[in-house]
Design brief:
heterodimer, A: alpha+beta, 2 domains, 5-stranded antiparallel beta sheet, B: 180 residues, alpha/beta, 5-stranded parallel beta sheet, two-stranded antiparallel ribbon, binds iron/sulfur cluster, magnesium (chain A), nickel (chain A), NiFe-Hase_large (chain A), Ni-dep_hyd_lsu_Ni_BS (chain A)
């Protein structure tokens, strides 16, 4: 709870993130930042209202948790269904799902970088907020804006070309896919690859230039040592769709490796807190506080031993050199990590589109209810995602547990915000540029708050400074 | 001709309708030529300003949403319910058959992954959820609806483009409606 005898700054809400949040910055008696509380607002209650429904409905219902990473929900869900049925997906159906999943990763990362974050890098953190967005970008750098828009479009187009829809697609079903990829669509997607690669490289050059020109800020920006969790393949390679879990500590030591996601409950617990609708998960063996870990692009690159594709591997080596092979804790590097992932996704899409089986008709195996429990996992753009279902003997859901990517970054976000607030906010001097930096910390994580609390919203930015009696002594509005 | 003003907002939804709006891709620049997007979750902005067209995604789930939609109604000449959650609550309204405290307890007390040391969220900075989720038209007058979960980018662009050119769109006529 808020300590009444401290001064507070409330930033409400945070814009240009995909979700709805407020921040209270608590000042101590000297007007210095004491700590920040990250409030995630809204809650939709999927775990409860899905009870009583058939487990096979879940790959269709749960994407509606989030319009930005619906495919990851479908994938985690369908894997849980396959465990309930005790079946394996057909090869071609499985690689089609992988392709769709990669497409979503490309569009989500493009959105995060080009639409939401690049205005800060290209127009400046202290530029006029009215123009600090994709349209402002389109005025000043039309070429970059258009390329960013088209990169996101490419990712969305993969779903469109396979299922006829871009968001909340149907067709991802237990056993594989319900629709095949037609040859003409395969060619259309394949033709797009060179452009997509070029645009990701453009993004990489933007972020690298920004790193060079702002080295001090980048390296001191919300450096938050935590544990990291990500999915890896059998050789420890970077993986988004299917694999085993790896936890590392802040020095890069491997805590757990090749962990079957089905054992998540042995390693992850979460705590509800008073100030947020988003819970605080932690690595169970180390307990709350010591066990905070982060997920998502930065975490996945920190845990991975290598990338699967050549161009991404080159960038990955640069990335690893930044901290001499140890994990990178600087939150700003989420952007770089995200673009490296976008690059590997485009390369992997090319490989999949050249797989002779990708247009096969043998895309689905068929099963029926066999077991009462299913756990599925996938790497959403923002991090590891778990769906856990328990059914009765007719396949009706008795219990649903969802562990969402952004939820797992919640403790890390809170920690990073506190660090940035300490660095940039001085109780007696609050400038719009500073607030934007606190917000942009959150934006580094690219939080999908709709997803994590299964809800969403957004409102104006308001900062209030309150004195010990709860009187507002200063109020700043954005604009 | 003075440029029109557009504002968009998401209430209780999944952001999918806004993502579908973004799926108009390059055509967003056509929209920007005819109108200023003065308020949108992907744009920094202050309180919902006076606009010609407000696109509203999601249902009314809480005190803040209610306050916001009443405010938007005053600010907008034309209020468009964007997507099934706004039109008829859709998935967001699936909790309407349950008691709110049961829904809360499932997430914050009884979830299998929860430790037993937590608190149910109750901070004053959090919005207060209503027992029931409402579609927009139960709370305010809605001028136009675009159904779909989400509506296709083509449908959204068509409606916007017609309104921006002072025509009344007819979704049936142009066969832009699709189930699901
Ligand atoms: S209508 Fe569908 S896409 Fe739109 S907010 Fe609701 S669930 Fe999401």
């Amino acid at each position: 709870m808020v300590n009444e005898d401290r001064r507070q700054i409330l930033i409400s809400p945070v814009t240009r993130i995909e979700g709805h949040a407020k921040i209270t910055i608590r000042l101590d008696d000297h007007g210095e930042v004491d700590e920040a509380l990250f409030h995630v607002n809204e809650f939709r209650g999927f775990e409860k209202f899905c009870e009583g429904r058939l487990y096979t409905e879940m790959p269709i219902i749960t994407p509606r948790i989030c319009g930005i990473c619906p495919v990851s929900h479908s994938i985690a869900s369908v894997k849980a269904c396959e465990m309930i049925q005790g079946i394996q997906p057909a090869y071609a159906g499985n690689i089609l799902r992988r392709l769709i999943h990669i497409g979503q990763n490309i569009s989500s990362h493009a959105l995060s970088f080009f639409h939401l974050s690049s205005p800060d890098f290209l127009l400046g953190y202290d530029s006029d907020p009215v123009n600090r967005n994709i349209l402002g970008l389109a005025e000043k750098f039309p070429d970059i804006a258009l390329k960013g828009i088209r990169l996101r479009k490419f990712g969305q187009e993969i779903s469109q070309r396979i299922t006829g829809k871009k968001i909340h697609i149907s067709g991802i079903a237990p056993g594989g896919m319900a629709f095949p990829l037609l040859e003409e669509n395969r060619l259309a997607l394949l033709n797009w690859i060179p452009e997509a690669k070029e645009t990701v490289q453009l993004g990489l050059s933007i972020i690298k230039k920004f790193h060079e020109e702002n080295a001090e800020m980048v390296n001191s920006f919300a450096v938050s040592p935590t544990l990291y969790l990500g999915t890896v393949g059998p050789q420890g390679e970077h993986e988004l769709y299917d694999g085993k879990l790896r936890f590392i500590d802040e020095n890069g030591n491997i805590l757990q490796d090749q962990l079957d996601p089905k054992r998540y409950l042995e390693f992850i617990a979460e705590r509800s807190v008073s100030w947020s609708y988003l819970k605080y998960p932690y690595y169970k063996p180390l307990g709350y506080e010591k066990g905070f870990y982060r997920v998502g692009p930065l975490a996945r690159l920190n845990v991975a031993s290598k990338m699967k594709t050549p161009l991404a591997q080159l960038e990955f080596e640069n990335f690893k050199n930044i901290a001499g092979g140890r994990p990178i804790h600087g939150t700003f590097y989420y952007h770089y990590a995200r673009l490296i992932e976008a690059l590997s996704s485009v390369e992997e899409a090319e490989i999949l589109l050249n797989d002779p089986e990708i247009t096969s008709d043998h895309i689905q195996t068929h099963g029926k209810w066999n077991y009462t429990e299913g756990i599925g996992c996938s790497e959403a753009p923002r991090g590891t995602l778990f769906h856990h279902y328990i059914t009765d003997e007719s396949g009706k859901l008795l219990k649903v547990n969802l562990l969402i990517a952004t939820g797992q970054n919640n403790p890390g976000m809170n920690k990073s915000i506190t660090e940035v607030a300490k660095q940039y906010v001085n109780g007696n001097d609050i400038k719009e540029g500073m607030l934007n930096r606190v917000e942009s910390t959150i934006r580094c994580y690219d939080p999908c708050l709709s997803c994590s609390t299964h809800a969403i919203g957004a409102m104006p930015l308001q900062v209030e400074v309150m004195n010990a009696n709860g009187q507002i002594i200063q109020r700043i509005e954005r604009g | 001709m003075t440029k029109k003003k557009i504002g968009t907002v998401w209430l209780g939804g999944c952001s999918g309708c806004h993502m579908s709006l973004l799926d108009i891709d390059e055509r967003i620049l056509d929209v920007a030529r005819l109108a200023d997007i003065v308020k949108c979750p992907i744009v920094d902005g202050k309180e919902f300003p006076k606009v010609d067209i407000a696109l509203v995604e999601g249902s009314v789930t809480s005190d803040e949403h209610l306050h916001e939609i009443l405010h938007i109604r005053k600010q907008a000449k034309l209020l468009v319910a964007l997507g099934d959650c706004a039109v008829m609550t859709n998935v967001t309204g699936m909790r309407n058959y349950l008691q709110l405290n049961e829904v809360f307890d499932t997430a914050y007390v009884n979830a299998i992954s929860n430790d037993q040391s937590g608190t149910v969220p109750n901070h004053p900075a959090l919005l207060r959820l209503h027992d029931k989720v409402f579609p927009l038209q139960e709370v305010v007058n809605v001028d136009y609806v675009i159904p779909g979960c989400p509506p296709s980018a083509d449908a959204i662009f068509y409606v916007l483009f017609e309104f921006l050119n002072d025509r009344v769109p007819d979704l049936n006529e142009v066969k832009k409606l699709k189930y699901g």
